[in-house]
Design brief:
Elements lengths: L1 E6 L2 E8 L2 E5 L1 E4 L14 H4 L5 E5 H5 L5 H8 L2 H5 L4 E5 L2 H4 L8 H10 L4 E3 L13 H18 L6 E6 L4 H13 L5 E4 L9 H14 L5 E3 L7 H7 L4 E4 L1 H7 L2 E3 L5 E3 L14 H5 L2 H6 L1 H24 L3 H8 L4 H18 L1
Helix pairs in contact: 8-9, 9-16, 11-14, 14-15
The structure holds zinc ion.
Length: 351
């Protein structure tokens, strides 16, 4: 990863993949390929040609529902199967393995990721309940062993490999990362398991700050926290990429992202009102048409997520990310507290 600009802990970078260069911070929209509702992910890369990233879940593909795995292989890979030319991040889907009947191991996962043409792959992780210490060390150890194994048996050099890590305290996480980085086998690091504990923002911020301190050069990805409100604060902490399924989930619930502001249920929006957005979807469709279509709402929502990335990137380039966050969170007391805490934590480190 090449870093071009630094603003506090935040940075602008470039990551070369087999399907193009990624300008970071960036977001990977989650594609539900292989899931029961996988057909409802819109082909957003055709509507918004600038969005050329996608996050896939190996677990869903491995489960081979409707023979999706066989069809991807027959087509010659995930890009040809979908007609997608961007960067495909294939996550292990470890969190779905928790209650699953589909057995997998690191070797089978890596074979699948390499076989379907992933541009970025993450290692097999064993998510743990961050708040319970029972068996947590055992699960962390298993995730580290998997990452270590993957780093040594990977074959496709053009596929970037991210080690998936979990941890419930800062010191432990730092030690895990330092151990893995010594092997020199990884192109980046992905941290998971933060979604269930996201309301404890001090805990999440402390973990991310530890991670950034342990690893300065390689990219850091955070699983599952890529909503429009969280992207600015995570970028501020030095996170380079996120994945987001909120645009689809909210689309299904008929929840509309108001650009630069909040979420609103479309049924609460006054009938005669115009939509407060000028994206290609909102320009071409009436409020009623959008209200009826989960795909149209999802597409609009994704555009809002991507616009947030654009704003953050511009603010970093101008070295005024703090000013942007102050404005962005000025109407949201909780996010103001989150920002204040993050600022205090970073001040201790950056001075
Ligand atoms: Zn729109």
């Amino acid at each position: 990863m090449q870093i071009s600009t630094q603003d506090g802990a935040a940075r602008l970078g470039r990551i070369s993949t087999a399907h193009g260069v990624l300008d970071t911070p960036t977001v990977f929209p989650v594609h539900n390929l292989g899931d029961t509702g996988g057909w409802n992910t819109p082909r957003y890369w055709e509507i918004f040609p600038r969005i050329q990233t996608a996050m896939f879940n190996a677990y869903h593909i491995m489960s081979n529902r409707r023979l999706v795995r066989d069809k991807i292989r027959a087509a010659g890979g995930i890009h040809r199967f979908l007609g997608f030319k961007g960067a495909a991040f294939v996550d292990s889907g470890g969190f779905l393995n928790l209650n699953s009947k589909v057995e997998t191991d690191q070797v089978s996962l890596l074979n699948l990721q390499e076989g379907i043409g992933a541009d970025i792959a993450s290692t097999l992780d064993f998510p743990c309940n961050m708040r319970l210490n029972q068996r947590i060390y055992d699960k962390i150890r298993k995730s580290v062993i998997n990452a270590y194994e993957a780093g040594h048996i990977r074959k496709r050099k053009e596929m970037l490999l991210y080690a998936s890590v979990h941890g419930n305290d800062s010191l432990l996480l730092r030690n895990v990362l330092r151990f893995l980085s010594k092997s020199g086998a990884f192109d980046g690091y992905a941290i998971g398991g933060l979604l269930p504990v996201r309301s404890d923002f001090r805990f999440v911020i402390d973990l991310i700050v530890s991670l950034r301190r342990a690893i300065s050069e390689e990219p850091i990805h955070i699983f599952g926290l890529g909503g429009p409100l969280t992207i600015p604060i995570l970028a501020y902490l030095g996170v380079d990429s996120f994945d987001s399924s909120s645009f689809i989930v909210c689309g299904s619930r008929r929840v509309y992202f108001v650009p630069g502001d909040r979420e609103i249920r479309l049924k609460d929006m006054p009938k005669n009102d115009r939509l407060p957005c000028n994206c290609v979807v909102c320009r071409a469709n009436s409020l009623e048409e959008i209200r009826r279509s989960r795909s149209l709402i999802a597409l609009h929502n994704l555009w809002v997520v991507w616009s947030e990335i654009d704003q953050v990137r511009l603010a970093i380039a101008e070295e005024r990310l703090e000013a942007y966050l102050r404005w962005r969170y000025s109407r949201n007391p909780l996010m103001r507290d989150v920002f204040d805490y993050a600022k205090r934590r970073l001040k201790n480190i950056l001075r």
